[in-house]
Amino acid sequence: MTALAPARSTRRLVLAGAAVLVVALGLVALMVVRPSAASPSGGSSLSAPAEDSVDAGFARDMAIHHQQAVEMSFIVRDRTDDEDVRRLAYDIINTQANQRGMMLGWLEMWGLPKSAAGPPMKWMGHTFTPTDDGSLMPGMATDAELAALTAAKGEKAEVLFLRLMTVHHRAGADMAQAAAGAARTDAIRNLAEGMVRGQQSEIGLMADMLKDRGAKP
Length: 217
Prior knowledge:
Elements: H1 5-33, H2 54-77, H3 83-109, H4 143-151, H5 154-182, H6 186-212
Helix pairs in contact: 1-2, 1-3, 2-3, 2-5, 4-5, 5-6
């Protein structure tokens, strides 16, 4: 493994994210031109929420949260030959990059900025101050943890990835649960509900995978 691998992974993430965003924007645009697709007073996913809404805040914060999950999955995929871990990483890359593209696409269609002026998590009724160690939101890995994952190989990388991703998923599921109960648009509510189910399922899977390796979550 060369020192260029993380850079290649980052470039792949950027390119994949851009492609997904283009597709998401195209799908949303097609929905806009359908006469029955939107109803501003009916809570439709296409009626633009306010900039400080739960919908916009969740989309912005979860897009950042997902980006790190995709980054960690690219890292571990290149540091293990274990098919189960590589398959999980592949699933996370595809699922969360797609969801991230959808959320950024909705923000674009709503005419809202993709980054918040204030601190993250405000839409949940509280704020989180990003720490000096690089963790931007609850559950997100620190710079040191990402460096350790990058340096690890084989089973050591697998265990570290599974532990970091379990913490990441737990915080992500909490965020999604909050959005599912408070968002105004169908798009965000439905997406958030799906995230809760998907991430809780993967948390259970990762607990079994850690057990198989004689490690605790």
